[in-house]
Structure formats: structure tokens, C-alpha cells
Amino acid sequence: MSTHTEDTTTGSTVAATASEQYTVPTGDDAFVCEYCGAPFATEEYHSLHLGLQHGASLTDDQRDAFEAAATDEAEELKLFRLKALGLLVLLYFGLLMTYAVVT
Ligand SMILES: [Zn+2]
């Protein structure tokens, strides 16, 4: 499960950056962590924070939300990897063809 560890790291970076950049008013609109009181700009960041920081004490609903948010990020990552892999395969066959023509 090495990919899962990577996703977790990405999520925490995003959440940390968001809470640093935006001053979220702790009103009714903001998503505030019920465990530590940290404010978040979006529900997704909030869900990621809950899963990463308070994974042991989550309710089923909170765990579902975290998994949904984490899956979104994982799919973006997968798409990027797929594109990179496609590029490598193209490059490989390009070189192979060049080699075949030259020799
Ligand atoms: Zn918290």
C-alpha cells in the first residue's frame, strides 16, 4: 500500500497550505474540526483533515467523507501517472523505431 501513504502526504500538504493562505472566519459557514477546532475553507479539506489527524475517532459518515475526498486526489494522481507512462511508452517505441531504421 505504498500509493496510499503518498496520497496521505499529499492531502496533509494541501490542508496545511489552505489553512495558512486563507483566514477562515470561525462562523457558521466555515468547516471547523470538532476535535481540535481547526478551520477549513472547504468541506473536502475538512474531511481530509479528519481522516488524517483523527482517523481513530471518526464516525462512519466522517470516514466515508474522508475516503471520498482521498479518492478524488488519488484519481488525479493516477491520471497524471497514466499520462507520464503513456509518454514513456511512446518515447520507448520511438527510439526502438529509430534504432531499427538506423541499423
Ligand atoms: Zn482536527
UniProtKB/TrEMBL annotation:
Name the chain's protein.
C2H2-type zinc finger protein
- Please name the InterPro entries in this protein's record: DUF7410, Znf_C2H2_type
Q: Which UniProt keywords are present, listed alphabetically?
A: Membrane, Transmembrane, Transmembrane helix
Query: Pfam families in the record, alphabetically?
Result: DUF7410
- What organism does the UniProt record list as the source? Halorientalis brevis
Q: What is the lineage of its organism?
A: Archaea, Methanobacteriati, Methanobacteriota, Stenosarchaea group, Halobacteria
Where exactly are the transmembrane stretches of this chain?
84-102
Residues forming the C2H2-type domain are 33-54
Q: Which residues form a coiled coil?
A: none
